């Protein structure tokens, strides 16, 4: 199933979400609108709001709040992107200049704050305390994940377990919140709620692990960033962690030095090391394990085109590295 066909079960709802996103970006301060529209219109697939719509549709939700919930999730995600790019001093995202590189760090941070605030205004309008509780908890976990990644920057001693905690908090948490909150909105039974929560969590973990693999073998035109960007920032991701654990003493020393110092001076040698140690395939196997868990969670949902699309989304998340 192509990405286009995955959107088909919720195409009308998705158009409503896009309209709502642009409507809610309205501000009396023109720079807020300029930066907000720049980032939300930058070509992302909007996977997280898509999860809200597909999950709600899989439960045959008949209300009118799912589009607003999807827009809330997108605003939360966009806010994290604006803040991430400032923290990482990134200059390229989705193939375009980042907002901080174009307008500066201060406007990017403040517009990120605006998007967080607007998302909570929209949650209040929805009138569901459970949704607000779930999403406020999720934003706190995501913030902790950002801080955890920051304090572990240029740390070659990061363990695989610590890495998994970082990517769960920083990335998978919003996937999890998207599908879980849709279940809450649809008043699903506890088992179904848990299934949707687990689906989003394991999909998000698989997605991030594959992203980290692509940093060492991806196509910059497709990724919207350059190969080796994570290494340049001193991030110890799963391919490097495994390569250090299984490689030669020389390879381990090389990778540890690169993580500590950042930069790309030894990129070619490190690319060779992650290939030679099987680190990329090991990482992909871990991603496939989480993909399998995500797919198993879908068995709790009744058969529907929405569930089929959710299953296909798992395949596309992992197959990007094929």
Automatic annotation (TrEMBL):
Residues 291-310 are annotated as: Disordered. Its cofactor is Mg(2+). Its EC number is 2.5.1.90. GO terms for biological process: isoprenoid biosynthetic process. InterPro entries: Isoprenoid_synthase_dom_sf (IPR008949), Polyprenyl_synt (IPR000092), Polyprenyl_synt_CS (IPR033749). Keywords: Magnesium, Metal-binding, Transferase. It catalyses: 5 isopentenyl diphosphate + (2E,6E)-farnesyl diphosphate = all-trans-octaprenyl diphosphate + 5 diphosphate. It is an enzyme of class 2 (transferase). Gene3D superfamilies: Farnesyl Diphosphate Synthase (1.10.600.10). The keyword Magnesium applies. It comes from the Bacteria. GO terms for molecular function: all-trans-octaprenyl-diphosphate synthase activity; metal ion binding. PANTHER family: ALL TRANS-POLYPRENYL-DIPHOSPHATE SYNTHASE PDSS1 (PTHR12001:SF69), GERANYLGERANYL PYROPHOSPHATE SYNTHASE (PTHR12001). Belongs to the FPP/GGPP synthase family. Supplies octaprenyl diphosphate, the precursor for the side chain of the isoprenoid quinones ubiquinone and menaquinone. This is Octaprenyl diphosphate synthase. It comes from Halospina denitrificans. The lineage of its organism: Bacteria, Pseudomonadati, Pseudomonadota, Gammaproteobacteria, Halospina.
């Amino acid at each position: 199933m192509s990405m286009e066909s995955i959107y088909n079960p919720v195409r009308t709802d998705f158009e409503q979400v896009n309209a709502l996103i642009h409507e809610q970006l309205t501000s009396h301060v023109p720079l807020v609108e300029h930066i907000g529209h720049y980032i939300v219109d930058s070509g992302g697939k909007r996977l997280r709001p898509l999860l809200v719509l597909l999950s709600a549709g899989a439960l045959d939700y008949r209300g009118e709040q799912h589009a607003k919930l999807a827009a809330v999730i997108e605003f939360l995600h966009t806010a994290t992107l604006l803040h991430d790019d400032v923290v990482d001093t990134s200059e390229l995202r989705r193939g375009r200049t980042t907002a901080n590189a174009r307008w500066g760090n201060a406007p990017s941070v403040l517009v990120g704050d605006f998007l967080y605030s607007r998302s909570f205004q929209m949650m209040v309008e929805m009138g569901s305390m459970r949704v607000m509780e779930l999403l406020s908890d999720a934003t706190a976990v995501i913030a902790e994940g950002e801080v955890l990644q920051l304090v572990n920057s240029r740390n070659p001693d990061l363990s695989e377990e610590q890495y998994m905690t970082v990517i769960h908090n920083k990335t998978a948490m919003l996937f999890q919140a998207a599908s879980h909150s849709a279940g809450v909105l649809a008043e699903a039974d506890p088992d179904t709620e848990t299934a949707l929560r687990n689906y989003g969590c394991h999909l998000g973990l698989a997605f991030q692990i594959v992203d980290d693999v692509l940093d060492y073998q991806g196509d910059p035109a497709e990724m919207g960033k350059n190969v080796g960007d994570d290494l340049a920032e001193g991030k110890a991701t799963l391919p490097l962690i495994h390569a250090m654990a299984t490689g030669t003493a020389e390879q381990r020393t090389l990778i540890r030095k690169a993580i500590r110092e950042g930069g790309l001076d030894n990129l070619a040698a490190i690319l060779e090391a992650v290939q030679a140690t099987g680190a990329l395939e090991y990482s992909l196997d871990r991603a496939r394990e989480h993909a399998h868990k995500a797919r198993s969670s879908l068995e709790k949902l009744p058969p529907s085109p929405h569930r089929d699309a959710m299953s296909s989304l798992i395949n596309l998340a992992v197959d990007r590295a094929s």
